[in-house]
Design a protein that fits this description.
It is a single chain. This protein has 2 domains: 67 residues, Chemotaxis receptor methyltransferase CheR, N-terminal domain (Chemotaxis Receptor Methyltransferase Cher, domain 1, Orthogonal Bundle), CATH 1.10.155.10; 160 residues, Vaccinia Virus protein VP39 (Rossmann fold), CATH 3.40.50.150. The chain contains 10 helices and 10 strands. Strands 6-2-1-7-8-10-9 form a 7-stranded mixed β-sheet. Strands 3-5-4 form a 3-stranded antiparallel β-sheet. Strand 4 and strand 5 form a beta hairpin. The longest helix is centred in the N-terminal third of the chain and has 17 residues.
Length: 284
């Protein structure tokens, strides 16, 4: 049964005024503040999804789905549609080289202490799997007992895709032929043209659903390295600073935080020191 038509006092369907309650919901209920071009992309995606389900306007979706159940499936739909980032294997490769060097150093300094890494905002999994592949090439006896790789995202849709670890030809374009042979299984039959991460790499990554605004985070803490790249772009300035403070608290002394190369941070927590344009170290 299709939703009923809007009343005469309702805003024009699919207009900017009609979309205003969605913007407010994103900011107050989810904590997402999108740049104008990203907001326009969300508006187009959401309109297409709602029209396919028989909704006549954004206001109707807000009144019938979001207001009665602010934490329900409507909220998750907005999260999934608004937080889909461009991601790729080995994106910003210098970060992975730096990570491998630091992990090797940590293991030499304390060989009996597992190194703990967190990919915060892992999207569809390319980042944490890239971490695992680089470490497999660096460490002769890589295992979950030596290195723990945790990966989290706000979007359940992205987390499910990451856990499946199945990618298409476009997804693996930047992966070298040697790595494709070593770390990917080529699909056959109905899965021809797809690539799946091999089990020994998949088993190194633990996925968790994490809302970075929530407290506490369902993770162990005391991380040696955190990647939180291109996540803070969804936060307003005050929220961004709060996030950085909490990330710093999750690092062990001497630990490292990697942000996106294009992220602009007007200020950083007092416990962090800038190492390079996008890498910070927590004071020992």
């Amino acid at each position: 049964m299709l939703p009923e038509n809007l009343g005469p006092s309702s805003p024009e369907p699919w207009s900017e005024h009609d979309f205003a309650p969605i913007i407010l919901f994103l900011r107050t209920q989810i904590g997402i503040t999108l740049e104008p071009h990203r907001m326009g992309l969300l508006q187009a995606r959401l309109r297409s999804r709602l029209q396919s389900q028989g909704f006549a306007s954004f206001t109707q979706f807000h009144e019938r789905i979001l207001k009665p159940d602010p934490t329900g499936p409507g909220m998750q739909l907005l999260i999934d549609l608004s937080t889909v980032n461009h991601t790729a294997f080995f994106r910003e490769p210098a970060h992975f080289t730096f990570m491998a060097e630091r992990v090797s150093t940590f293991l030499k300094e304390a060989p009996n202490v597992p190194v703990r890494i967190w990919s915060a905002g892992c999207s569809s999994g390319q980042e944490p799997y890239s971490m695992a592949m680089v470490l497999a090439e660096t460490l002769p006896a890589l295992s979950p007992q030596r290195v723990e790789i945790w990966a989290s995202d706000l979007s359940l849709e992205m987390l499910n895709a990451a856990a499946r670890a199945i990618y298409n030809a476009r997804d693996v374009q930047g992966v070298s032929p040697a790595r494709l042979r070593r770390y990917f299984l080529l699909g056959k039959g109905p899965r021809e043209g797809s690539y799946r991460i091999v089990p020994e790499i998949r088993d190194l990554v633990k996925f968790r659903h994490v809302d970075l605004r929530s407290n506490p985070w369902p993770l162990p803490g005391d991380f040696h390295i955190i990647f939180c790249r291109n996540v803070s772009i969804y936060f307003a300035d005050e929220e961004r600073m709060a996030l950085l403070n909490r990330l710093a608290q999750q690092l062990r002394p001497g630990g490292w935080l990697a942000m996106g190369n294009g992220e602009i941070l007007p200020t950083i927590p007092s416990s962090l020191r800038k190492h390079s344009p996008s890498i910070y170290r927590k004071e020992s």
